[in-house]
Amino acid sequence: MKFSRRAFVGGALAAPFVASLPRSASAAGSVLRVIPHADLKNIDPIWTTAYITRNHGYMVYDTLFAMDETLTPRPQMVETYNVSDDKLTWTFTLRDGLAWHDGPPVTAEDCVASLKRWGKRDGMGQKLMQYTASLEAVDAKTFVLKLEKPFGLVLDAIGKISSNVPFMMPKRLAETDPFKQVPEVIGSGPFKFLKDEWVPGSKVVYAKNEAYVPRKEPASAASGGKVAKVDRVEWLYIPDPTTAMNALISGEVDYYEQVPGDLAPIIGQTPGITVEVLDPLGSQGMLRFNHLLKPFDKPEIRRAVITAVQQEKFLQAGVGNPDFYKVCESYFPCGSPLENDAGLDMIRPHTIEAAKKLLAEGGYDGTKVVLMQPTDIPITSAFSLVAAETMRSMGMEVEIQAMDWSTLTSRRAKKDPVENGGWNVFHTWWIGGDLVNPIAAVGLSGGGTEKAWFGWPTDAKMEELRDKFAFTSDPAAQKDLAKQIQKRAIEIGTHANVGTFFVPCGYRENVKGMIKSPVQFFWNMSV
Amino acid sequence: MWMFIGRRAVATIPVMLVVAFVVFMILRLSPGDPATVIAGDYASPADIARIRAQLGLDQPVALQFVSWIGRLVQGDLGISIFSNLPVTTLIGQRLEPTLMLSLTTVVFSVLVAVPLGAVAAWKSGTWIDRTVMVVAVLGFSVPVFVLGYFLVYGFSLELKWLPVQGYKSPADGIGLFFRHIALPAGALSAFYIALVARITRASVLEVLEEDYIRTARAKGQVESKVLLVHALRNASVPIVTVIGLGIAALIGGVVITESVFNIPGLGRLVVDAILKRDYPIIQGLILFFSFLYILLNLLIDIVYTVLDPRIRY
């Protein structure tokens, strides 16, 4: 075998240039270049609760109802709706001009199929479907929801702002098994998903849906006119925060969706760049107990730890910058309609002495607490260290077990004893939009091992209160029930609220039209 | 030679099978479950079990392995659990940036390091030699991400000559490609320049002691010809070995550089897949890396015959 050395060297040098793959042509028109908060790994917002997929959903899909900035559900795809006097029959009529991205008009049958699929995955959707007698299309634009009992949160459920959002899909896609991903992305929203340009881990591209007919009302959170003011939106995922910051400063991107608190001052001092919090509710940190295992099988011991939680300490460790956190003890987001202070007297003052007293009352016997620490999520990782120190200062024995979030999510589902892979406590967080009512806030459930969220609190009274809330549509009665639910949550110690934090966005001066909301939207934004 | 290549190709099969088995078992025995990640916060245990069944994760591990191997021999690396895209598509999307970064780094490193190392050996013990060695120690010592951030600060943020991040294919324009690859390749090259320069210096130094070099000089050959034709060529086998292994290491190990410069390459793909427990991607990529290592080793062996005619297989 013989090689010409010249040919060999020439071939080697030329290889990089001939090996390149074909690329799409660069886009024309206005482009909003965004660094999203995460990589879009999957495209079905019913299949997953990931917030990035929810945001993708808002780009391409539309909703029947949508929350405005006061968290009131407003008609979106729906033009008119009627409810019978007995509140059992709801009739919805779609507005004119709705069409799927591939051309056909949106029909009532599409919406019925979409709601049914969502109702099999989402917590509030499951609750709604539990009391649904029938859901059927009457004609091309009208469908009727018949309830067995007067569920009070019909509009709150189908206008839900955060995961899983009941996005409307064509019937042929909505009939996909809800535990399988839809095979293609066809919505009726203000942007179209360009699948050919999607590079998972790097880039997602959306093009303006020229056929979209926005509502006439001004945009308000998820509701109102969704006017696409740019031709393309490019999500350029940059996992390294310093690189993301540099890209914003150098003008390679226009908008950085979630600026880390430690970089916010640097970015904020850069001329031509603004750092701003757009989410009025923020996110709430949660310390979740496993109610099935010692020592947190006793409410006094759970309440002892809640008493010891000094939010300021958690927030300083997890967030650091006081501009981006707030001490807020209400279990419902501060600034939301259901914010209240019921039951807080049970856990005040937040002192170690008071906590120790409760711990003694609970008969803590020195059982070791296994705390799962997700080291790849900086904020909850820091919360975990403070929680361990807090419990140790109360006299509890604590073992921190470090792991990545994926391991934690599989382990938190285990109900086994600690020695067989179980757990006692872990941290997570929820955006305020997930906590605006006690049905959406799954952490408040007392449904036990079958129905409650991980940690499995079992409390018949709590479930009775939540059920009452679900059948109440009167705002005053809802507020009163929310107080009772919060009081009960603290009494039984469902979880500890470790404080509220806000994640600012950063944007260049050419970017206009941001919408204040717990969820990031890209309509109404221009460059 | 063809017999040698044939034998090596056949020997690849058991190696790949062992790699496949080990990777598969490690993943199945490690904690974490993609079904719980997919199921999300509102899923019941029954929902999680249903997802596990759909992914085939409820089957006995042996059956899962046989099923995977069966698809593998047909060239099917599987479908990503999360993106629902074929693993081959995902590797295809990420291969070019990683290959381009690796090759640019290696070409640049070789162009700089081999002359540096050869000159250092030629001028052994002088200030030139010591300067080259100091540069080499610095190249070894400075972490790539530190150098990367310095380069970004200087060339992108201050001078505004080059972009901060991203990748452009040569198909988008050679100029654009070089503008985007210059900083990551520069940052990554520091280590490889140091490595190749030191190996070159040591090899050339050894060769310069040989009798035939003295003979060449005695015959009146000019010093540059002695160095380039006689010394460097005969010292090239260990240098080529290091360069070849460097390419292999770069392809599988540039995750930090890919992160700092936001290059959508294979390194980031594998890290993301591990964090999500996307088994088909992890398995497919590790097999791919193994295949690449074997292929590069074979190529290095072939290059030996080009550089040293005494080597025959």
Describe this entry's structure for a reader.
- Chain A is of the alpha+beta class and 527 residues long.
- Helix content of chain A is 29%, strand content 18%.
- Chain A has helices at residues 5-18, 51-60, 108-119, 123-130, 154-158, 171-174, 241-250, 264-268, 299-308, 311-318, 352-361, 378-393, 405-411, 448-451, 460-470, 475-492; strands at residues 31-35, 65-67, 73-75, 78-83, 89-94, 132-137, 142-147, 191-193, 203-208, 232-236, 255-256, 273-276, 283-289, 325-326, 369-374, 398-403, 425-431, 495-501, 505-508.
- In chain A, strands 8-9-10-1-11-19-12 form a seven-stranded mixed β-sheet.
- The longest helix of chain A has 18 residues, at 475-492.
- The radius of gyration of chain A is 25 Å and the shape is globular.
- Mean pLDDT of chain A is 92; it is low at 1-27.
- Chain B has two domains: 2-73, no CATH class; 93-307, MetI-like fold (Orthogonal Bundle).
- Helix content of chain B is 78%, strand content 0%.
- Chain B has helices at 2-29, 34-39, 45-55, 61-73, 87-122, 127-141, 144-158, 174-208, 211-218, 223-234, 236-253, 255-260, 266-276, 279-307.
- The radius of gyration of chain B is 24 Å and the shape is globular.
- The model of chain B has no long low-confidence stretch (mean pLDDT 88).
- Classes of the chains: A alpha+beta (527), B mainly alpha (313).
- The interface between A and B is large, with 63 and 64 residues.
- Chain B: It is found in: Cell membrane.
- Chain B: One of its GO terms (molecular function) is dipeptide transmembrane transporter activity.
- Chain B: Residues 95-304 form the ABC transmembrane type-1 domain.
- Chain B: One of its GO terms (cellular component) is plasma membrane.
